[in-house]
Amino acid sequence: MLGKNILLCVTGGIAVFKAAALTSKLAQSGAHVKVIMTESACKFVAPLTFQALSRNEVYTDTFDEKHPEKIAHIDLADWADLVLIAPATANMIGKLANGIADDMVSTTILATTAPVWVAPAMNVHMYGHPAVRRNLETLKGFGYRLIEPADGHLACGYTGKGRLEEPENIVALLKDFFSGGPKPLSGKTVLVTAGPTIEKIDPVRFLSNRSSGKMGFALAEEAANMGANVLLVTSVDTLAPPAGTEIIKAESAEEMYHAVMGRYKEADIIIKSAAVADYTPVRVFDKKMKKQPGNLTLELKRTKDILKELGERLDKPFLVGFAAETDHLENYARGKMERKRADMIVANDVSREGAGFAGDTNIVTIFKRDGSKRELPLLSKHEAAREILREICREIEKDEKK
Ligand code: PMT
């Protein structure tokens, strides 16, 4: 962090008091810190606090040009090696997602080419609101990095996700970023499958499932953060592609089969988190089916089992399957590992609260070939992805030592 220029943008929420501690920790780590505050942030803590902690003047107003030879927001945007918004309110996230530049923070961020990190803090229901979720996805699409809020007691009285991440953890993340971070997967190619498959019935109808792709996208993003070259095979186009990954579109189980089989030789590791249909309609109608009197019987045929087929290849890479179960988790997961010759199975009981489809969290158990298992608690999908990838790294390291 020594000598790095960190531009800290403080927006208005109760967590502004933690941003003061963050300023102090950033300065202690050797970084140069400059602070911009929104008008509402100033209502929680006075700019003087940030001035004293950063040893720099604090910016609050786009039109308060202190130095006639410079335009402050452009000067700050160019000065920064990294821009950190902490706490980031729902309002600021919304403005940034829509390119609105009506205050010193949003104007400066629009003008910077430095990496932007966003650390939200707000009420748990606000954080879960579809508008905030959509805006965060948009920011991720811009390449901004999200420092997810932590779970816990919130100032509004609720308990849940919404607390600003602890200042020391934020500083640790930035240190990793500037030092190039631990990159245990550098030089490796990881192929991840994510999301549901879509099995067409006719031009307007299809069979699918409740997978959102979040688990697979989190795996892809975290693998890229660990230095891997990532290929992401998916039907999902509603999530922003993680920075540094190659997206390979595949809608149906058949398309996913061809996409994976066409690229598997490039991969050192394959992680099959996609929820692939086991059955597909025998016949796909090229015109919209018209309703008839009485019931309709749809004939389905089995799809190809991609994981099983990969497991049978002699040149197979390290193979990780997922198991989505609602009962007998361990038996079914171990059965899948044997039948599909996977090196590891990540099982989730999708009937448990906080686990499985669509949400931002998961509860997984990792089963390994040596018969061992590791049960993880409720974690965000990103945290779970990091743990899964660390387990994979450990197994690969063991194999390489043999
Ligand atoms: O996408 P999210 O909303 O975040 O939800 C995440 C998830 C619940 C989808 C994910 O955590 C998960 O469990 N993915 C696997 C779902 C699944 O299809 O499980 P399965 O038990 O039916 O299949 C076992 C394994 O075989 C899986 O790795 C699957 O990708 C693979 N398979 C299955 C059928 C098939 N024809 N080909 C396959 O390769």
UniProtKB/TrEMBL annotation:
InterPro entries documented for this protein: CoaB-like_sf, CoaBC, DNA/pantothenate-metab_flavo_C, Flavin_trans-like, Flavoprotein
Residue stretches making up the Flavoprotein domain: 4-176
BP-aspect Gene Ontology terms: coenzyme A biosynthetic process; pantothenate catabolic process
Region (Phosphopantothenoylcysteine decarboxylase): 1-189
Cofactor stoichiometry and binding remark: Binds 1 FMN per subunit.
GO CC list: phosphopantothenoylcysteine decarboxylase complex
UniProt xrefs under Gene3D superfamilies: CoaB-like, Flavin prenyltransferase-like
The keyword Lyase appears for this protein: yes
Pathway the protein contributes to: Cofactor biosynthesis; coenzyme A biosynthesis; CoA from (R)-pantothenate: step 3/5; Cofactor biosynthesis; coenzyme A biosynthesis; CoA from (R)-pantothenate: step 2/5
Cofactor(s), by name: FMN; Mg(2+)
Region (Phosphopantothenate--cysteine ligase): 190-402
GO molecular function, one term: phosphopantothenate--cysteine ligase activity
Reaction catalysis annotation: N-[(R)-4-phosphopantothenoyl]-L-cysteine + H(+) = (R)-4'-phosphopantetheine + CO2; (R)-4'-phosphopantothenate + L-cysteine + CTP = N-[(R)-4-phosphopantothenoyl]-L-cysteine + CMP + diphosphate + H(+)
Claim: Oxidoreductase is one of the keywords in the record: no
Residue positions of the active site: 156
Residues in DNA/pantothenate metabolism flavoprotein C-terminal domain copies: 185-393
Keywords associated with the record: Decarboxylase, Flavoprotein, FMN, Ligase, Lyase, Magnesium, Metal-binding, Multifunctional enzyme
Residues bound to CTP: 278, 288, 322, 336, 340
EC number: 4.1.1.36, 6.3.2.5
Matching NCBIfam families: coaBC_dfp
Function summary: Catalyzes two sequential steps in the biosynthesis of coenzyme A. In the first step cysteine is conjugated to 4'-phosphopantothenate to form 4-phosphopantothenoylcysteine. In the second step the latter compound is decarboxylated to form 4'-phosphopantotheine. Catalyzes two steps in the biosynthesis of coenzyme A. In the first step cysteine is conjugated to 4'-phosphopantothenate to form 4-phosphopantothenoylcysteine, in the latter compound is decarboxylated to form 4'-phosphopantotheine.
Family: In the C-terminal section; belongs to the PPC synthetase family.
Official protein name in the record: Coenzyme A biosynthesis bifunctional protein CoaBC
Species of the source: Heyndrickxia coagulans
